[in-house]
Predict the structure.
Amino acid sequence: MEEKVNTRQLALEILLDVEQKKKTLQEALHIMLKRYQYLPKKERAFLTRLCEGTVEYQIFLDYLIDAFSKIKAKKCKPCIRIILRMAVYQICFMSHVPKEAACNEAVKLAKKKGFQNLSGFVNGVLRNIVRNMDSISLPDEEKQPEKFLSVKYSTPEWLVSYLLEYYEYPVVKNFLHAAFEEKSTSIRVNISKTTVEAMVQKLEEKDILVSPGVYVENALHIWNYNYMRRVPGFSEGDFAVQDESSMLAGMALSPKAGSLLVDVCASPGGKSLDAADRMLAASMQEGNGQSHGLVIARDVSPDKLERFTENWNRMAFPNVKLEQWDGTALDASLVGTADYVICDVPCSGMGVVGRKPDIKYRLQREQLDSLVTLQRAILENAWQYLKPGGIMVFCTCTVNPRENEENLKWLINTFPLVPESLDDYLPQSLWNEDTKRGYLTMMPGIHACDGFFISRLRRKHYERSS
């Protein structure tokens, strides 16, 4: 008889991989869930929530541990620190888990991992927290606003300070709060393969909860499914997992059938495959299935292209060509050939901390300067692939103005590119003064999606000073 799987122990292994082997939470969790596909839905959900929640609330959890332990969280052995964090998360945020069980299971786990001599320490800290939960207080919001936001929303204090340099306090507070809100899975229905109506019917037949997209017509939000690979239509390539913010980049581009499109930083493929789907659908609508054009999708590493390939194989779009290429190197053979270019440059990822909470702990302030340098090296090459009159969408998944608006200003001032209004491409609910100037920052807490930046630029027909 197969031994019962201890999901808390699996969670501990995942979180140790994140802390010690520097894996992303998404990667470590995906590997474990794939290995234990046979786990019941309830246990998979428990494992996912425990891992994501423990990382998401890490600073807050350490704050509580430090308040009730003689040994601060940072000074604890990594295994004990994570066991304590996991237990405190269950005590504070998983109401269906009895507090007694959270404490007992943490003690058992410490013993099982060879820390019999520290099991009493674990037990004492956790029971101290349980007894004194009502007396826990956060830093004073008026006297220490940055410290308050850092602890309450488990965000490094330097990052809170950085955001406050660019945004008002209420905007930053709402942005940080939005990262903790429950999220559905956003999918993009491939309009060249099926319809939104058919996709909804297929999902609802399997008791998957579905709601329409907020901004994008072929977007759906889904809940109540066990494993994505078993969702109807996944294997057939009827849809792709993609946030609506990223889909808006495809709307801003709106590529025509028969075009040549180059995506210079393509992995994991959401925007390239969205563009390919749009071009195929437009070709079918025009009654010419052969003039569907070509998407050249590039990325720098084989590992990244492997992720793209997995998605592409499911969708089997005939108008996509994958190539390994470093975006910081100019490809002379493509200069002046493309109708469209997508330039989704590597960025700080501040806009997606709600889905990838470990980003906020890995990011360092000094990295931002080197990121901007890298981004500009890629952008300087990317625009050159455009034909005169061609369109480039420059986008990121961050809300950092240094990586967004300042890069856009640099592009316009340095190269023969002019911004174009987004109002002809995006839903009216998103129109504002910025969209008229050719860009948009999607901000969690204001918009119902991830944080994202989109801009649309056209290469001038005549490249002389205007």
User: Anything to note?
Assistant: Residues 337 and 387 are 5 Å apart (CA to CA). The chain has four domains: 7-135, 145-178, 185-241, 244-459. The mean pLDDT is 95. The radius of gyration is 24 Å.
